[in-house]
Amino acid sequence: MVFVGSNPTTANITQEVQMRELESKIQRRCQEVFKRDKYFVMKTHGDIYSRAGIPDLIACVPVKIEVIRKMLEDGWFKDNKIGIFIGLEVKTPETIGIFDDTREAQEIVGKEIKNSGGLWFVVDDDVTVEALLKVTKGEL
């Protein structure tokens, strides 16, 4: 490690900032790979309110059934299961019908998720989510 200045703590912080800048550049290039094919990708921003361990980038990539079968055969997925990307925009019963600029942006992102093979819904209760999960479990 190279110390910048006379204070090792400052040097550590400087090195940490340089590492973050490098990581952010890598993240931007990774995002561009997804965006090049118009796949949904988002950068997460960890803070004290976020769950620890959430990946830096979350993406939804359309994959044909034949490719998924091959990936299953090749052992890509644990316990022979795959996940489905589900995006939920949660509203109150009073705000579910309001279409403002924020809602328009949410609808655009929802379309991107759907175009990438994911599921996206606007919900105003947990009953809808329960029904959705029952469908994914084959119970409905």
Structure characterization notes:
The chain is of the alpha+beta class and 140 residues long. The protein has helices at 8-36, 65-73, 101-115, 126-136; strands at residues 40-43, 57-60, 86-90, 119-123. The strands form 2 sheets. The chain has a two-stranded antiparallel ribbon with strand order 1-2. It has a two-stranded parallel ribbon with strand order 3-4. The radius of gyration is 20 Å and the shape is globular.
Main features:
two-stranded antiparallel sheet; two-stranded parallel ribbon; alpha+beta; 140 residues; disordered N terminus
Chart the SSEs and their pairings.
Blueprint: H1 8-36, E1 40-43, E2 57-60, H2 65-73, E3 86-90, H3 101-115, E4 119-123, H4 126-136
Parallel strand pairs: 3-4
Antiparallel strand pairs: 1-2
The overall pLDDT, averaged over residues, is 89
The proportion of residues in beta strands is 5-15%
- β-strand number: 4
Task: Sum up the overall morphology in one term.
Answer: globular
Element string (H = helix, E = strand): HEEHEHEH
Q: Main beta sheet, described?
A: 2 strands, antiparallel
**C-alpha Rg (nearest Å):** 20 Å
Task: Quickly give the structural class.
Answer: alpha+beta
With helices defined by DSSP (H or I, 4 residues minimum), what is the helix count? Answer: 4
Please list the strands of the largest sheet in the order they lie side by side. 1-2
